Amino acid sequence: MAIQHATDQNFNQLVQGNGVTVVNFWASWCGPCRMYAPILEAFANEAEGKVSVIKVNVDENPVTSAQYSIMSIPSTLIFQNSTLKYKETGILPARTLRTLVTGEAE
């Protein structure tokens, strides 16, 4: 279970609990989102079992997108124990993702 896809109906359930959850807001028409997808996929595979990675399609899930004031995509949110800890717009390099999630640089 590398990347999960969230909907307006199941988003809160997927980010609840202990641990770290990385959430990517995206759309199929977004070029930078398509460039970010392989970075997230590799990160999800590398961090499997330690970090949950979730994608939210902004076109299909407007309620969740509005709830987190997503105005530009791709946007990445990082939750720690169900609490939003970080929000960034744009493509995050894998190294930055690792640092944000683990607190350690390579």
TrEMBL record:
Disulfide bonds join 30-33. One of its GO terms (molecular function) is protein-disulfide reductase activity. Residues 1-106 form the Thioredoxin domain. Pfam families: Thioredoxin (PF00085). It comes from the Bacteria. Keywords: Disulfide bond, Electron transport, Redox-active center, Transport. GO terms for biological process: cell redox homeostasis. Transmembrane segments: none annotated. InterPro entries: Thioredoxin, Thioredoxin-like_sf, Thioredoxin_CS, Thioredoxin_domain. One of its GO terms (cellular component) is cytosol. Belongs to the thioredoxin family. This is Thioredoxin. It comes from Paenibacillus sonchi. The lineage of its organism: Bacteria, Bacillati, Bacillota, Bacilli, Bacillales.
